[in-house]
Amino acid sequence: MSKRVLVILGLQRGLFDENAPFRQCVAPPDAIDRVRSTITTLVSSPLIDWDCIVHVSMQQKIRQNKQASKAEDLLIAHQSLKPGTTGAQVHPSLAHACPSAVMLTAAAGSNAFQGSGLDEYLSNRDLSQIIMVGATIGGMLLSTSLSAYLLGYEVIVPSDCLLACSVAELKVYLDAVLHSIVQVTHSADLLGGAA
């Protein structure tokens, strides 16, 4: 059986806090709370024996010569993921649910493997299966999933553990963008399959 790791992308206050300006870009707004709650359920469930849990803090990179989405513009305007700000801090729900999670920080941009030491950490522990959850904003999920795939990891994405700006955006990500590089599932399948 594959050793599996839960990799959480950007469960940070600038995206998941109750008063984060980012809520203006998410429809429906309570999706943020549902995704956060589902992720913390996966993290703390006794039904899943994770080989490890890793959180990668993301830093937003201001794109040159590319059109940013409304969500990216809002994150930049409010410096929501800027290092050293409250928004860049890991959300307290993760610290509470899993105080032993490994905390890494990626370089500015959309790829959790860049500058974080994530590949080295995973390969040193012979971890081959990544369950990836968190934000899709600014290509975070796509860039990180593609890197994981190219590095030889099996990537599984529970659809109810992804934060997108809308249901339609999430559907496009899952059906058209990611389907050839990841296996899409649901958190209930992970919880039920672990017993």
Write the SSE topology:
Blueprint lengths: L3 E6 L3 H4 L14 H14 L7 E8 L10 H8 L14 H6 L4 E7 L9 H7 L4 E7 L4 H11 L3 E5 L3 E2 L3 H11 L5 E3 L1 H7 L2
Parallel strand pairs: 1-2, 1-4, 2-3, 4-5, 4-6, 5-7
Please describe what this structure looks like:
The chain is an alpha/beta fold and 195 residues long. The protein has one domain: 3-Layer(aba) Sandwich (Rossmann fold), CATH 3.40.50. The protein is 35% helix and 19% strand. The protein is built from 8 helices and 7 strands. Strands 1, 2, 3, 4, 5, 6 and 7 form a 7-stranded parallel β-sheet that branches. The longest helix has 14 residues. The model has no long low-confidence stretch (mean pLDDT 87).
What are the key terms here?
single chain; 195 residues; alpha/beta; Rossmann fold; 8 helices; 35% helix
Termini gap: 14 Å
Q: Major β-sheet, in short?
A: 7 strands, parallel
pLDDT averaged over residues = 87
Number of helices: 8
Low-confidence stretches: none
Radius of gyration computed on alpha carbons:
15 Å
How many strands? 7
User: Can you tell me the CATH superfamily?
Assistant: Isochorismatase-like
In short:
This protein is of the alpha/beta class. Helices cover 35% and strands 19% of the residues.
